[in-house]
Design goal:
325 residues; 5-stranded mixed sheet; 30 strands; 53% strand; iron; Nitrile-specifier protein 5; repeat
Amino acid sequence: MAISHCTWVKLDQKGGGPGARSSHAIAIVGQKLYAFGGEFAPRVPVDNNLHVFDLKTLTWSVADASGDTPPPRVGVAMAAIGDTIYVFGGRDAEHKELNELYSFDTKTNNWALISRGDNGPPHRSYHSITADDRYVYIFGGCGVSGRLNDLWAFDAVDNKWVEFPSPGENCKGRGGPGLAAVQGKIWVVYGFAGMEVDDVHCFDLANKTWAQVETGGQKPTARSVFSTASYGKYIILYGGEIDPSDQGHMGAGKFSGDVFVLDTETLEWKRLEERVESGSHPGPRGWCAFASAQRDGQEGLLVYGGNSPTNDRLDDIFFFALSQN
């Protein structure tokens, strides 16, 4: 069944939430959203609390966490496998790239430092992350000496890092790309490589080979720092920066507010019809926290906060549900 349209729902928020921010990350375990990191003022980490949003009661709280709590950071990435959340990298208050991998057990509320230093991927921020039932995948980002194009996986069963072959020069180092695990392949979609780019690459996990793929259809313009979800054979893309600011990270570029879907079998893009069920449309934005989600029996994408065309950080939460024809 093809995806025909999506419906936006703005979620009410109760309790003292974490507030407006961008360059943060979320992960979803069950019916709870966990938010970490981010900035309100450019390049200034807000806090290192783990904020929890109950998707049933729509209420915020702060996890009463113990263990090795990560220091504050921006440009961080996180993903969940089962009841465990994994947090990797980011940039600290001194603008230094980080490479620690932390885990957070949502059953015990305990943080643990898993790896750092030479054990694992090099330091980076504004990288991308995705996960399947066993592995957490990390790709690209801004490294100590430039943008990266390497792909790593953390094996959550054997507790070890795996480095995959390099994609080579065809896939330039980039920050803020889309990353998705779909049908045995890891897909790298677009990103910022000194300019916004619109290329798509995939890594075959069985054969350990990279390929650049040509896509067609209603192809979105080049962009980075957009929100991404996967559903079956589809990769969904919302928003993102389509023209960077001449102030760099200190300013707001030009953002998109459209939704596109890529069929990874036909390699055809389609712009989705968007409907609004309650509240408002999220509008153009980028640098959001996002995660695939399920709400009221519907699959879709949760988007929290981000940066706006006016360079104001946002604090709203939207869910868009995917509909099939």
